[in-house]
Structure formats: C-alpha cells, structure tokens
Specification:
Elements: H1 13-20, H2 49-63, H3 67-80, E1 84-85, E2 97-102, E3 106-111, E4 121-127, E5 132-143, E6 148-156, E7 169-176, E8 182-187, H4 207-211, H5 215-218, E9 226-229, H6 241-254, E10 264-270, E11 275-277, E12 283-285, H7 289-303, E13 312-318, H8 335-347, H9 353-362, E14 364-367, H10 413-425
Parallel strand pairs: 1-2, 4-13, 4-14
Antiparallel strand pairs: 2-3, 3-13, 5-6, 5-10, 6-9, 7-8, 7-10, 11-12
Length: about 450
C-alpha cells in the first residue's frame, strides 16, 4: 500500500488485508430470510423470492424428467410469457420474442434487442438430458427360471450403475406407430401408478459374487434389467405367460404391440419427486439436476425479461450433452447455428454469410452446467483453494478438460474480467450493493 498522506488515518494491517485479499462470503448472507413464527415454524418458508423460486423449480423438475417433457413444459412457459414460434415469423424487430424446437428435444428462445443483432448476441446454453436407462429396441423378455418379465436396457450418460438398483423407476417416453401416430407413455410418476425396479442381490448372498468387487463392477451394464411383470396369464396354451400379461396390458392401455418397441424412445428414470434437504431446507434432492438446474434457470431468466434489452439475448437448451453432444439434437449438429442464422436473417433481410459470421464474432456465450462442490466425505479429490462450495453463489469455471487441459475450453482473461464486472455489478453471489447494471 502507498504511504498514508498527511491528515489521513493510517490503515491497519487488518484493514489492508481486507482490501488486498479476496473475500468469499456465503451467498445466504445476501438473502433476507423472514423469521418463522407460531404455527409456521414447521412449514416451508415461501414468503421470499428465493423460496418461491425453489418451490417452482421443484415442481418443474419433478414433472419434466425427460428432454421431451422439459421441452413441452418450456413451450408452455414461453408462450405464456409472450414468445411466438419462430417458424410463424417472416421478420423480426426489436422486442420480438421467439422460440424454436427441434425434434421435441431441444429449444431455443430469443428476444431481439433494441440494437437488433448489430452488437452480436448474448447466448446462454444449457442441456436438458440427464443420465438414465434407455429401453433396447427389443426390450421385453421373460426369464423362465425366475418367472419374471424384464425390460433390457442400455444405460445413457455418466452414471454409476450400482446406484440404479433398488430404485423406484418410472417409464417415460413415446412409441411411434407405423401409421405415424405418437403414443405417449408416462407410468410411475403418479402416486397411484406402479413403479419399476432393478433387483440387487441380498446382503447374505453377495459375499462371493459382489462384496469383494470394485464399485464399478458390482453391477454390470448387462444386469440393469428392469422388472416389469410377475403374474402369469392363466392359459396353458400361452408359452411365455408373464410376458403375455405385460403385452396384454400395454395393448389394452396404449394400443401397442411388441414390434412397436422398435420405434420407441422409452426412458427409465427415478420416479420420486424432488424434495428439500435438511431442517433448514437449504438444499434440493432430485433426479436430473445435471443439467436441469441450469436449463430451468436459463428458461426462467429469459422469460422473465420485461423490457427490451439493448443486445439480443438467446437461451439454448440442448440435448445429448451426456453422450458428447452428438446426434441431430446435440450441440455438434447444425441446429444451433441454423437457429442463430434465422435470427440474423429475419432481423437483417439483406444479411449474408459474412454478416452472419461477424454477428457470431461479436457475440458472448456461456455454457451453463453443474459443477462439483466440496464433498466433506471426499475432500481429497478437491483442490480446496479452487473448489466451489455449497451456498457460495454462482461458480465460474474458467476451463475444464483433464490431465493437461485436454479437451478444455479455456476462457480468456478478458472475458472472465467482463463476467466478473457483470456479476459483481449486479450483486450476483455477493453482499448487497448498489447495482451498476454493467452490459456484456
């Protein structure tokens, strides 16, 4: 520090340390929590925006467990906020609110800014898909030795296989008939529905086959077979009696046959709803928060914008991140760029590909996904000087990758500085100050 000018109080070492060091207060200090009184002590606190948003989030992710359901709910939210289908627009102007879906598994939302696209766009991308179990094309089998009917599955995304046994599972997705008709399936999320389950071996029988096995081998992928039936039909002429019971139920309720599984997308996901964790309800437990917590926040942010921003804003909720962002609905497809291209061309009718490239170069983007917080049971996997902590606000991850930053997207220092100014200037994850409303 510089020498103290005459007439000014000398700064103590403690004060100097505060000025030079980085303070990281808990984000909860910025939230004004009402003191519960009387009968409300045991009830959830819902009088602040924080708790209201949390309640809304819990309801949303409990209902929208798959990509298709998330997109369908997102369209409802978007249209209620005044967004119109991009396919219905012939031109876009400042203030235009539009959305576009692709194969019902991703969605783009945009608000055209007062500057059009002349300043580029602010883009936030999240992903909708989460680890799950997909039914195979020929999934239904009956095991004669156990007299049970199973669905054969192929696990999707980065999951720990041993965590999926003994779970109550729901079956959600679509079956598309040869006629083109789409049959929607959602069994297990309603409290009156049956659920599905993968059996694990009993503790007193697991000594030789599981107890001394590495965790990633305790349950093999080929053992992720979902029990879907156990009652045989009373007909001596039927060979696979339990399988027939399942097929009969599916045909009566949904009008489908076994061959229709060939053109189905059916996902097994945890059936239970999301819930608060802890006496203080400070955490949320629920399936699919990677990355529905960011996707929902992204959706909420753009649909709550009331005034036309200066710069065009875009929210993109993508599919297939869990398996490398490949496929027609992943970020490595052309769907994202095609949507961006439509925004530019409908805003500037005389634009060309060079102009489109210029707009992209002027744009800013954030890839929003979950990050790991310090786990008290596994502190050894963290760099405690650089790890995120629960309750300390938004975490900016400058780079990812592994080993020597292999596969990393390493953001430049200028961009991180811009984001720091934007977040701090608007009291995001910090103690209350006067908002500066810095632009990005």
């Amino acid at each position: 520090m510089a020498e103290t000018p005459p007439g000014q109080r000398a700064v103590s070492k403690e004060e100097e340390e505060k000025q030079l060091s980085r303070a990281t207060p808990s984000a909860w200090h910025a939230v004004v929590l009402p003191e519960p009184t009387g009968a409300s002590v045991e009830a959830p606190i819902t009088t602040t925006a924080v708790w209201a948003a949390s309640d809304k989030y819990i309801e949303f992710i409990s209902a929208a467990k798959t990509e298709r359901l998330f997109v369908a709910r997102s369209v409802q939210v978007a249209e209620a906020a005044g967004f119109k289908a991009l396919s219905s627009m012939t031109t876009l102007a400042p203030g235009s609110k539009v959305y576009a879906t692709f194969h019902n598994k991703n969605i783009m939302l945009a608000i055209i800014g007062s500057a059009g696209v002349s300043m580029g766009m602010n883009i936030i991308a999240s992903h909708l898909d989460s680890p799950r179990l997909d039914l195979k094309p020929n999934p239904l089998v009956e095991d004669a030795d156990s007299a049970l009917a199973f669905f054969k599955t192929h696990y999707y995304g980065g999951l720990k296989k041993y965590q999926w046994v003994q779970l109550q599972l729901a079956l959600i997705g679509v079956v598309v008939l040869k006629s083109g008709e789409t049959v929607e399936i959602n069994i297990g999320t309603n409290p009156t529905d049956p659920v599905f389950m993968i059996a694990d071996i009993l503790p007193h029988l697991s000594t030789k086959v599981q107890n001394n096995t590495a965790a990633n081998e305790a349950i093999k992928g080929e053992q992720l077979n979902i029990i879907c039936g156990s009652i045989p039909v009373r007909d001596g002429n039927v060979k696979q009696k339990v399988k027939f019971t399942v097929l009969s139920y599916l045909n009566r309720r949904f009008g489908i046959k076994e061959e229709d599984f060939l053109s189905a997308e059916l996902e097994a996901v945890p059936a239970n709803p999301a819930r608060y964790v802890g006496f203080d309800r400070g955490l949320i437990a629920g399936y699919g928060q990677d990355d529905k917590v960011c996707a929902w926040s992204n959706l909420e942010a753009i649909t709550q914008i009331k005034e036309t921003p200066q710069k065009t804003v875009v929210a993109f909720l993508a599919d297939k991140e869990e398996i490398g962002s490949i496929g027609a609905t992943g970020m490595k497809s052309n769907v994202f760029l095609n949507n961006m291209r439509k925004l530019v061309y409908l805003t500037e009718p005389n634009a060309n590909e060079v102009r489109f490239a210029d707009v992209l170069e002027m744009s800013n983007a954030l890839s929003t996904d979950v990050t790991v917080a310090v786990d008290p049971n596994f502190k050894e996997v963290h760099d405690m000087h650089n790890a995120a902590k629960v309750g300390y606000g938004v975490c900016l991850t400058k780079y990812t990758g592994s080993r020597g930053k292999s596969g990393a997207n390493d953001a430049d220092a200028e961009y991180i500085a811009k984001l720091r100014g934007l977040l701090d200037g608007n009291n995001v994850g910090s103690l209350p100050q006067s908002p500066k409303q810095l632009s990005c």
